[in-house]
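Dear Dr. H.,

I hope your travels went smoothly. While you were away I took the liberty of generating a structure for the chain from your last submission, since the lab meeting agenda had it listed for discussion. I wanted you to have the full record in hand beforehand rather than looking at slides cold. The sequence, exactly as received, is reproduced here:
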Amino acid sequence: MADNPDDILSDAVAETAGAPALDGRVDTFSWQGADMVFEEFGSGTPVFVLVHGIGMGRVVFAELIDDLKKIGRVIAIDQPGYGDSPEPPRTPTMERTADMLAALLCDRGVSGVTAIGHSMGTQVVAELAVRHPKLVSELVMIAPTVDESARRIMIQIGRLLRDLWGESPKVVLLGGYEYLRAGPHLIRKMRAMMVHSPERSYPRLTQKTLILRGEHDCVVPEPWAQEAARLIPDATYDTLPDTSHQSMIRNAAPTTRRVLKFLGRGSTFLP
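The corresponding predicted structure, in token form, is as follows:
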């Protein structure tokens, strides 16, 4: 049960949006002057680590968490300055966030995880896998950003607005709430995302990787997602039909099915 006003408000927004309320074990990890709030669900193996995108927080993974915790342990983070995590003294790079996540996993005694990133989160999990390869067994990249031809803030904002046009109220409500929580430094955070060049890290990945893209994703062009799959030595590419950039928020089941198939596990618990 939520025990502070922010948690109560988050639960109310999730309930209004029709998403499950998060009911895991919440803790805070401090590292080199920054704090990262994380929440754990389930137990055993496999261990899934969920990393959200720009402006978001772990709450957007609520449905996916509800699925994955039935078969293993889930660790969902709020990157510094997002969700419940306080604003850090300086905006971290993708590499620094990956190093902080690695320190968290080591602190929790976890390795060999399935790291799942969405949007900007794919940049973080890619760096995690490259810089700390023993911690990551598999990668799942949902809507990988940012393509080389569009590393401009206004281009990304325009794409996001097009993607949200006609989206479900669930996506708009949850996403809008999380963007408000990201605070006044969102442009600075977007710059940190833009200066990162994921294509330099992709060829260095040694982990089995699944790349997922929503069929109607306006933020991630299909040629770029396919190029990412080509650059990664052991990558599989798949499309989520009739979905946009926020595919796992609207309906997580198609994502869950593909993740479990990728891992060689059944998904009979899904409707």
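Two observations you may find useful: The CA atoms of residues 131 and 171 lie 33 Å apart. The two ends are 27 Å apart (CA to CA).

With kind regards,
E. W.
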